[in-house]
Amino acid sequence: MKELTCIVCPRGCRLTIDDELNVTGNFCPRGAQYAKDELTNPKRMITSFVRVKNRKDTVCSVKTSCSVPKGKIFDVMNEIAKVGVDAPTHIGDVVIKDVLGTGADIIITKNID
Ligand code: SF4
């Protein structure tokens, strides 16, 4: 038996998962899926920054387009640290496509003129 708090939405349901991965306490199906994923293949969104090469002392915020396995977070952060972008930047621009084969793109989250 395991207990988790669902972090998919602000309601924060308390979930209980038995040894057969049966989930109770979830208000909606997303909580059951979250609990199963958390126990079998936990994933997280990543937010970070990349250098803006053509602006002095400037960085631009980025994030993954979807969650990536927790075990790959540091490898993905290392890939993000290797790249830079040129301004202007636009929200949604892809900096790295399918980073490390995770299926997630690294995308810009800030407009810089
Ligand atoms: S189970 Fe559904 S309603 Fe409850 S916190 Fe998770 S996503 Fe929100």
What would CATH call the architecture of the largest domain?
Roll
Q: How much β-strand is present in the residues?
A: 25-35%
Order the strands across the largest sheet as they lie in space.
8-5-6-10-9
Into which percent range does the helicity of residues fall? 10-25%
Poorly predicted regions are none
Q: How many domain modules?
A: 2
Q: What top-tier CATH class of the largest domain fits best?
A: Alpha Beta
Radius of gyration: 18 Å
Compressed to H and E, one letter per element, the order equals: EEEHEEEEHEEE
Instruction: Report the principal-axis shape.
Output: elongated
For the residues shown, what is the average pLDDT?
96
- The H-level CATH homologous superfamily of the largest domain, spelled out, is CPE0013-like
Ligands, deduplicated: iron/sulfur cluster
Number of strands: 10
Rounded to the nearest angstrom, the distance between the terminal CA atoms is 52 Å
What do we call the CATH topology of the largest domain? CPE0013-like fold
Tally of DSSP helical segments: 2
Structural class, by secondary structure, is alpha+beta
Largest sheet data? 5 strands, mixed
